[in-house]
Hints:
The structure is a homodimer of 114-residue chains.
Chain A: H1 3-11, H2 14-23, H3 30-39, H4 46-58, E1 62-67, E2 75-80, H5 82-113
Antiparallel strand pairs in A: 1-2
Chain A binds a DNA duplex (30 and 30 nucleotides) through residues 5, 8-9, 11-13, 15, 29-31, 44-48, 50-52, 54-55, 69, 71-76.
Amino acid sequence: MNVDNAKSQMRKGMLEYCIMLLLSEKAYYTSDIIKRLKEANLLVVEGTLYPLLTRLKNDGLLAYEWQESPQGPPRKYYVLTDKGAEILKQLDAAWGELENTVRQLKNRRLLIEN
Amino acid sequence: MNVDNAKSQMRKGMLEYCIMLLLSEKAYYTSDIIKRLKEANLLVVEGTLYPLLTRLKNDGLLAYEWQESPQGPPRKYYVLTDKGAEILKQLDAAWGELENTVRQLKNRRLLIEN
DNA sequence: AATAGTACTTTGCATTGCAAGGTATATATA
DNA sequence: TATATATACCTTGCAATGCAAAGTACTATT
């Protein structure tokens, strides 16, 4: 096994959640998103992000508006819709459950080891 | 979008980690693993688990030994190998990073909202 | 018009969760 | 012996999705 692959697999599914978290803050366009997630220690690439944003938009969780760029072609700025905010709440809960699951499994291990 | 699907996607990749966490505790066979993970709030089914265990065994992270069952056919009890324990450490770190990422994204949101 | 830079998009592959169905072993019962 | 039931392990096919790589389009500069 490859730990990098395992980490990549862990990111899977997280990504949707993280992007919605980020966009709940304010509107971002793709390059910004990549930069901001990188700062938060999550590496994402274009080939991952564009299809994901399109998917979330098609599901009505995101919307976008075009904005002029100071240099270059216009940008799609994405924001969270009301529906997206609803779903985000549920993902928050789901994430909390996962954290709990790992915590439980870890605690049990510690109980037995010590 | 389907929140259940999103949750399922979140579980992806986590599962490997959780199963290794569980097996770091002691030897389990498949039905036990499903039961224990269910108690930890993580629903897994046979069709997911068997291929995963086989994969981890082929990668040398797990080993198994047959044990008689009080009723029915013998069972494969899986344990973590030394190599598996090494990898588990790395997955622990990876998980910690993901928790941090989400925490950062959440904090920023809170800072802006309030 | 040609080039460079930025931005958005698509294609194809690999991985993996999962439903559904299959095989094998042990025990009980007719 | 045959049949039924319970338990356990395994496989197949599909769908979702991260990602590398290649492609398209718009803008500004030379």
